[in-house]
Amino acid sequence: DGGITQSPKYLFRKEGQNVTLSCEQNLNHDAMYWYRQDPGQGLRLIYYSQIVNDFQKGDIAEGYSVSREKKESFPLTVTSAQKNPTAFYLCASSTPAGAGETQYFGPGTRLLVL
Amino acid sequence: GIQVEQSPPDLILQEGANSTLRCNFSDSVNNLQWFHQNPWGQLINLFYIPSGTKQNGRLSATTVATERYSLLYISSSQTTDSGVYFCAVRFGGYNKLIFGAGTRLAVHP
Question: How are beta strands A10-13 and A109-113 bridged, if at all?
């Protein structure tokens, strides 16, 4: 079954703690993305990667970090510098980013601050 | 600046009704997609439609790129159509999709 998986489904963070959200895809897509969605809002781009070992900041990268060591994996770390991390986090992948890309999304991770 | 605006923001329908959702964008685009987000948060890609018309079952979409808008038509709505519909565009010269704020649809039996 081809698709995108995200784990965990729910994640709780304590003050001052770094947490890592997992995103894995077996669609053989080159490009991967992380979005943040706040309640009742649209999606905002955090980071994206068009190829292994390369990634770029999106619109709201402060307080987040990523890595892209494998084509299939694009983990997102929410650092203690992110002061308001409570949100729904969505990972997506696509065929090579560009005019013709079509993005496919994982089921998301809900992050809550204790 | 570049903008993607969706209307209406909220829509309530009785099952069986038809509806039209609109997406306006501020500049020429080379990519436009419509997504449905179900009540559990999963986003499903409905259409890739930078221009022209496409149909998939009860859903169809039309993009008039020269006039900078796209329409999503839902016919004979069902309760399972409930959720949020997002339009996302890639403007020329940009390397990312920009999402609109969405249209929240509730279909009642």
Answer: parallel
